[in-house]
Amino acid sequence: MGLGSESQALTDCGALGLSMESVLGVLGFLLLASGLPLQEAKQFRDVLGHEQYPGHMRERSQLRGWSSDETEWNENLYPVWKRRDSRWENSWEGGRVQAVLTSDSPALVGSNITFVVNLVLPRCQKEDAEGNIVYEKNCRNDLGLTPDRYVYNWTAGAEDGDWEGNASQSEYLEFPDRKPFPRPHGRRRGGFVYVFHTLGQYFQKLGRCSARVSVNTANMTLGHQVMEVAVFRRHGRVYIPIAQVKDIYVITDQIPVFVTMFQKNDRNSSDETFLRDLPIVFDVLIHDPGHFLNDSAISYKWNFGDNTGLFVSNNHTLNHTYVLNGTFNLNLTVQAAVSGPCPSPTPPTTTRPTTTLPTSTRPTTTPPTSTPPTATRPTTTPPTSTPPTASPSLMPTGDNPMELSGISGENCQINRYGYFRATVTVVEGILEVNIIQVADVPVPQPDDSLMDFIVTCKGATPTEVCTITSDPTCQAAQNRVCSPVHTGQPCLLSVRRAFSGPGMYCVNFTLGDDASLALTSTLISVPGKDPASPLRMSNGALISISCLALFVTMVTGILLYKKHKAYKPIGNGPGKTVKSKSLRVLLSHAKAPFSQGNREKDPLLHSEPGMP
């Protein structure tokens, strides 16, 4: 039947006086008869189902508070755009919004895992206290300074009357599955709708620029899973998509274990190369952000691979010293007894099944990968049986979880294990450094003061020595000097350093080689210029000799004066009179500094004209 036939049929129906409903019904029948397909309503898995999950996984992983993704999606209120749709470019004023999804994965099965979504707004935009998006003050973006304060003002049009049950006003206050929004408290309302999707289920919530969701993993499937999040914003009375993001998370039945290793004088702890005859501090970190193991009894079993035996402790830190050079395989097994539902009578086959906690004695065997120990020195008694063979990976090798659904509500004690393996290399290094003597260098210097340090060390021979000079508090560094070392055994160094002036200094010495760094510090007092130094002594001697010469000259002049002071007859010749007067004037000048105020006044000594 063609379109012409359809038009003729409609004309005939109108002539017969049929109602509009009848006409539409006839038209629908004609469309069906013509074979044109009708568009089916979208479901959540059509919008968010980028990861497909089989039916048995959907039945097994029933998450509390989540719904099946086979629910119908309200596309009229929440339009669906394809990934390359051009409408994405105009979904937000001023640019694109980026969504960042994080989680505290890996999560031990039975614990809670938390997902957090943060929205990264375009430049110069932020969220205010009421949840509106505003422009930052004095911030210039690509569009320049804008006089408008708001990017999106959602609280201005959101009144309490919208929540009073008026269908015309509240029909848009719904989630994509047509469930109504929760009533907000006050005016602090979120303008975003977040839809989380994983394991064939979804969870939806209102939020602001950040949203957080916590999920219990008791019924989750072990292994790597994908969490997808779609974010929508209010746009009038519809919600348009602004961002999509997904991230991988891990559910495991093994305790996530990390070990940090620290050793004094170790130059680089990240290369797993350590020094002989110095203790290594091992610190075990259990990744348990949900505090699932807070009430569990945890034991730590160590095998250091150097034939020292198995060490068992309830403390997460332990010190161990390697006394030989070489390469050693370190093995750690962490065991925790947790409360959980008892397994079903016929659990499925798993790669490494979890077992029920029985009562047993302390195991005496070591992990199969380590060297058989010659002695066993446990510090505590483990409360459970020997764990299965440790695997080199923290994650399970299979995806078959322990069945937790459809079992009795009784609680059992379940053993959970975590493993850590490492290969460490032990070499000889510098173990200790000491300053045994500090002396001032007796060589004159115009500016700096020199100090000699005698330094000894133990262990390997250093290849360089560095000094850092600081203030007396050892906080503010002033200079740093490094120099190569040429020394034999035993380690004895003479290091000379210059200081800018007298005072108190903190001096840090660091001796190093390829694998180690040993350091020590001392507080010294640098003296000032010694007054008895050779230079000052020579200058003093010259001054003393000059003063002595001047004194001898003056004494000689006085003696000469006294010698000529004796009375002699005055001659009648004019030549003698002039000579005598000249001599008296010379002696008077020489005597003046020593006889001020006590000058002899003898009229016989004056040679005045006209005297007899």
From TrEMBL:
**What is an example of a Pfam family matching this protein?**
PMEL_NMB_N
**Region: Disordered, residue numbers:** 339-400, 593-612
Organism per entry: Mesocricetus auratus (Golden hamster)
- Output compositional bias ranges, type Pro residues: 380-390
Acyltransferase among the record's keywords? no
Which keywords does this Swiss-Prot/TrEMBL entry list?
Answer: Glycoprotein, Membrane, Signal, Transmembrane, Transmembrane helix
Q: Principal localization? A: membrane
InterPro entries named among the record's database cross-references: Ig-like_fold, PKAT, PKAT_KLD, PKD/Chitinase_dom, PKD_dom, PKD_dom_sf, PMEL_NMB_N
Asked if the Swiss-Prot or TrEMBL record annotates the protein with the keyword Transmembrane, the reply is yes
Regions of compositional bias (Low complexity) in chain numbering: 351-364
Where the record annotates domain PKD, the positions are 295-339
User: What superkingdom heads the lineage?
Assistant: Eukaryota
The job of this chain, per UniProt, is described as:
Could be a melanogenic enzyme.
Q: What is this protein called?
A: Transmembrane glycoprotein NMB
Q: Which Gene3D superfamilies match?
A: Immunoglobulins
Q: Name one GO molecular function term.
A: integrin binding
Family note: Belongs to the PMEL/NMB family.
* Xref: PROSITE patterns: PKD (PS50093)
UniProt topology in membrane: Single-pass type I membrane protein
